[in-house]
Design goal:
2 domains, 336 residues, 18 strands, alpha+beta, Creatinase_N, 21% strand, single chain, Creatine Amidinohydrolase, Chain A, domain 1, six-stranded mixed sheet
Length: 336
């Protein structure tokens, strides 16, 4: 059980309690989340502070062994000497309020306390991620048929949002990235009024969500006849992605997967144009553990889900990126 695993970690880290403020972590453990909600775990208890806004919803969604309370009070922390907090999500304002509320308790900053568990997906989570990915794939197929010169990037972004919902997604995982021509060398470009044209790269990066789980997908399209340079770069990226995917299996360092794609692009003369990590975990958050980078010295495990997205970005010309999501299996990986 998710809650039991986190409580065991609280005891293992010799903490008297752990306060969860990250809303995705709260949802992961309780199936309920909302602004201002907090969860206090000890080795034996689980308190869900709903606030008045979410009190009724929490009573419907949050199950035992959670105890639902509307407001945090000092008495609920009685007997605690040290309290773990999520340093990546707690605001300075909340931190100071905690210090004032609990002056005799030592606050212990912790990193990725719950996120480490979230990095290994259960089968039910993988099925939800597959549904989000399928809705995204269908939306892309529908959109690609409708693209034509003269449509603005902003209009395409709007159509992406519409197609995601038409094809089963409950919403967008993030605002769609649509960048054409020289603007496609901006990896996270915001859509503009620019009209798309023939014979230029059109970078599309988007994803749909399903029951809280996200998807992330990128392709670079060309209207009209694809040029020799564009065709060569497209094939190089596909090869770089394939080489990385072949390396994915349990026990392999995440850095080795990044290295496989990066070395290939460097040998081909485009290493300096690959300016970001190869991938990132995906689940309740669009970016979560594990991160597939040269700096990540952690081994892959079955159930990890992450993107593989090599890219080449040439200032003044444009960029190409190719992104798919995979799940690590017992023998390798599977594309979602």
């Amino acid at each position: 059980m998710r809650l039991n695993r986190v409580q065991e970690k609280v005891k293992k880290k010799k903490l008297d309690g752990f306060l969860i403020t990250n809303l995705k972590n709260i949802y992961y453990l309780s199936s309920c989340s909302g602004s201002g909600i907090k969860v206090l775990l000890t080795g034996k208890s689980a308190l869900f502070f709903s606030g008045l806004l979410y009190d009724e919803e929490a009573k419907e969604k949050v199950k035992e062994p959670f105890r639902i309370l509307s407001k945090i009070k000092p008495k609920f922390f009685k007997g605690l000497r040290n309290l773990g907090i999520e340093e990546n999500s707690i605001s300075l304002k909340d931190y100071r309020q905690l210090q004032k509320l609990l002056p005799k308790i030592k606050l212990v900053p912790c990193q990725d306390f719950v996120e480490e568990f979230r990095a290994i997906k259960e089968q039910e989570e993988i099925e939800l991620l597959k549904k989000a990915a399928m809705a995204t794939k269908k939306a892309f197929s529908s959109l690609a048929k409708e693209l034509k010169p003269g449509i603005s990037e902003l209009k395409i972004a709007g159509e992406i949002c519409s197609q995601l919902r038409k094809n089963g997604a409950e919403g967008e995982s993030f605002p769609p990235i649509v960048a054409s021509g020289a603007r496609s060398s901006f990896p996270h470009a915001n859509p503009s009024e620019k009209l798309i044209k023939e014979n230029e790269p059109i970078l599309l990066d988007f994803g749909g969500s399903f029951k809280g789980y996200q998807s992330d997908f990128t392709r670079t399209l060309f209207l009209g006849k694809i040029g020799e340079k564009e065709n060569r770069l497209n094939k190089l990226l596909k090869k770089a992605q394939d080489l990385a995917i072949v390396r994915i299996q349990p026990g392999v360092m995440a850095s080795e997967v990044d290295q496989a794609a990066r070395d290939f692009l460097k040998t081909a003369g485009y290493g300096k144009y690959f300016i970001h990590n190869l991938g990132h975990g995906i689940g309740l958050d669009i970016h979560e553990l594990p991160f597939i980078s040269l700096e990540t010295k952690k081994r892959l495990k079955p159930g990890m889900v992450f993107t593989v997205e090599p890219g080449i970005y040439i200032p003044g010309w444009g960029g190409i990126r190719r992104e798919d999501t995979v799940v690590v299996t017992e023998t390798g990986c599977e594309k979602l």
